[in-house]
Amino acid sequence: DAEGTQVGLRPNVAGTWLIELTVEDERTRRSHPSAVVIQAVPSASLRVLLDWNDSGHDLDLHVVGPQGGYFVQSDCHYANPNPGWGSPDLVSDDPRVGEDVNGNIEQRLEEQFTLSETLSGTYTVLVHHFNDRGQDAGTRARLLLWIGGRPHELFLPDRSLRVGEVWRAFTVGMPGGLVNEIDQLTTHALLGGPPVNVRETF
Known about the structure:
By secondary structure, this protein is mainly β. The protein has no helices and 13 strands. Strand 12 and strand 13 (about 180-185) form a beta hairpin. The relative contact order is 0.17.
């Protein structure tokens, strides 16, 4: 039943793959082979770690996928911690942001983004200062980056953030892993984010 036959391949080794297909009829006559060449490249994972220096503040890590926008489905963050970015049947191409890494929201001082299988395109990393619990003060934020499991040195200074401010830190172009450091301070409101904190009026 040629109409119902499906053949799939998921290469587990990088390199050039040659796939050949021949068809045999009921008289065991074989067709000439048809062939296709596939170039499999190593997958490149992304990992981003945000930490800050004061447990009285709540910072949120945002990683926006290719052709995406801030605080929508293509933005992986605390309110959208595991969006479906890739193939519906493949979980490794869906990102995840880990909330409450230290197990206690009052003492949590870091958040982590992980993505095992990146799509082609540009990923944007941002940090949103969500809440300072009435302290009316800033806190220092620091970002670390790993590409393909290897640490990548960022030449970004730590940033002091206040409530409502968003640090547009850097982009990563995949599959090449090209990092562009933006280091720009803006606000949640200016980026079009929804009302999430009564003090974010600027």
